[in-house]
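Design request, tokens follow.
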């Protein structure tokens, strides 16, 4: 899942000397365009960026003036016009660029591309097994789901509660596996 949540966690762990491995279904960093803008709030996303030690790189991504907000109706009548106050409270950045600074900040080999997770199970002793689409498996002592909308929750000793949304565990997507 080399995307924002999982990569940020991997980076914060790395800053603290804790190795981790990130398993991603996509075959390479170029497999899919990561478009779209993100507001990174000072009380939320920026705290994570700071914990990752990447504030300087983050500031280099900020698009000046993009905190301006204007709402118009279908006739073009301006309903709300709020200028960028310049405080940097919720600057906008490109999702793909933010992902790139996170990727660049991790040791080589941290991200394992082309590893689509097809399922997980817990052994009940603090270890978890992750199965990939090609049938290979890894066992880890700590497993974190960072697959966005398909977020998965894994709890020790409770193999039937793999999905926060109650879906089919066999369809479960990506994980971040910590090797430490
Ligand atoms: C439309 C939209 C707008 C948003 N705007 C903002 C914003 O302005 N500011 C903000 O802070 N947050 C915003 N968010 C939230 C933010 O995008 C998420 O919090 C963040 O991306 C979650 O990170 P993640 O790593 O868990 O998941 P994602 O970024 O969704 O990445 C999931 C990753 O899992 C991989 N994956 C999927 N299935 C598998 C599988 N089976 N095996 C292995 N890998 C798999 C995918 O390829 C992908 O790389 C927005 C979200 C959306 C949808």
């Amino acid at each position: 899942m080399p995307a924002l949540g999982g990569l940020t966690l991997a980076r914060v762990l790395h800053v603290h000397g804790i190795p981790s491995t990130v398993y991603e279904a996509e075959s390479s960093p170029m497999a899919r365009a990561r478009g779209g803008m993100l507001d990174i709030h000072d009380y939320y996303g920026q705290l994570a960026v700071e914990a990752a030690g990447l504030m300087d790189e983050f500031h280099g991504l900020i698009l000046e003036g993009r905190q301006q907000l204007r709402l118009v109706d279908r006739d073009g009548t301006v309903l709300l016009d709020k200028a960028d106050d310049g405080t940097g409270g919720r600057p906008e950045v490109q999702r793909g660029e933010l992902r790139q600074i996170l990727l660049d900040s991790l040791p080589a080999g941290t991200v394992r591309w082309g590893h689509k997770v097809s399922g997980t199970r817990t052994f009940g002793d603090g270890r978890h097994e992750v199965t990939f689409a090609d049938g290979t498996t890894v066992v880890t002592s700590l497993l974190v789901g960072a697959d966005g909308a398909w977020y998965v929750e894994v709890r020790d000793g409770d193999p039937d509660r793999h999905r926060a949304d109650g879906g089919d565990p066999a369809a479960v997507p990506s994980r971040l596996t910590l090797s430490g």
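Comment from the thread starter after seeing the answer: thanks! Residues 1-6, 23-26, 38-40, 45, 116-117, 146-148, 150, 173-174 surround flavin-adenine dinucleotide (CB under 6 Å).
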